[in-house]
Amino acid sequence: MIELFENSKLPIKLDEEAMKIVIGEGLSGGELSIRTIEDMQPVLSDDNVTEPKESYFMYRDIFEVEKRQVMKENFARYDITLIPNGFMGDELIKTFGHYHPLVPKTEVSYPEVYEVISGQALYLLQKVDPANPEKVLDFAVMEAKQGDKAVMPPNYGHVTINNGSTPLVMSNWVDSRFESEYGKIRELKGFAWYFKKDRVVEKNKLYQEAPEPRYIKAESVPKFGLKTGEPMYQSFFEEPSKFEFLGKPQEHMETFNKVLKI
Ligand SMILES: [Fe+2]
Question: CB under 8 Å to 74, separation ≥6 — which residues?
């Protein structure tokens, strides 16, 4: 059993044998939903892959009762995801991937922030031409290790990959007022690039155009209250106003561009 309190400031543990998160006393919510290999097949380069049967695990909407009101007032939701290490066929284990819808009355979609609680990750960020989802305008790979915060900027779809040799435990803060969109990614069999064994990166031929992946590092974003090594569950309650970027991204585009290094 791996204790995750220091890294998350929450009473949670990783049971590596059972491949599950043990949620301790004082925490509520965290309903488990499991993505199976059948769910994942539509976005794999090889759709005949049958392992791992349970591909990854999402514990949605975790909260402490006494802090629930602050989360509600800020429309903020906190989730934890567990992604085993290993492969799906010759691809590194990854999430399905999705886009977020636009914030009402804007041309900007909702962002999100992830934190690596344990393990390491690659966050794939894909921006497509709004008029043509087969044309990729930018493809960034954000590398993150334990303690890092990875901001998913507006107008980018995202996929998480576990590229480490241990299970990846990550958390996210996200606005509670929208549902993710999976349709376009399903139609195109995933993102524009597949990340495979031995650092092989292979183009998804269903995309008409896609630039080569460019690599960036997850870094602290003080303006958003995000600091490497400081658990962001706690950071949120220290200064909820800094997390306003989750619901009003249109007011923070300069900071998002810095995150993206553009
Ligand atoms: Fe998301």
Answer: 240, 243, 244, 247
CA of 248 to the centre of ligand 1 (A): 16
Cα 203 to ligand 1 centroid, rounded to whole Å:
23
Domain of residue 55, CATH code: 2.60.120.10
Q: How far is the CA of 180 from the centre of ligand 1 (A)?
A: 6
Q: Tens-of-pLDDT digits for all 262 residues of the chain?
A: 999 999 999 999 999 999 999 999 999 999 999 999 999 999 999 999 999 999 999 999 999 999 999 999 999 999 999 999 999 999 999 999 999 999 999 999 999 999 999 999 999 999 999 999 999 999 999 999 999 999 999 999 999 999 999 999 999 999 999 999 999 999 999 999 999 999 999 999 999 999 999 999 999 999 999 999 999 999 999 999 999 999 999 999 999 999 999 9
- Closest Cα partner for 89 from 121, 51, 56, 124? 51
In terms of pTM, does the model score above 0.70? yes
Number of domains making up the chain: 1
By the 10 Å C-beta count (0-12 exposed, 13-18 middle, 19+ buried), 138 is classed as: middle
What's 85's DSSP letter? S
Residues whose Cβ atom is located within 5 A of ion ligand 1: 112
* Structural domain range at position 100: 2-260
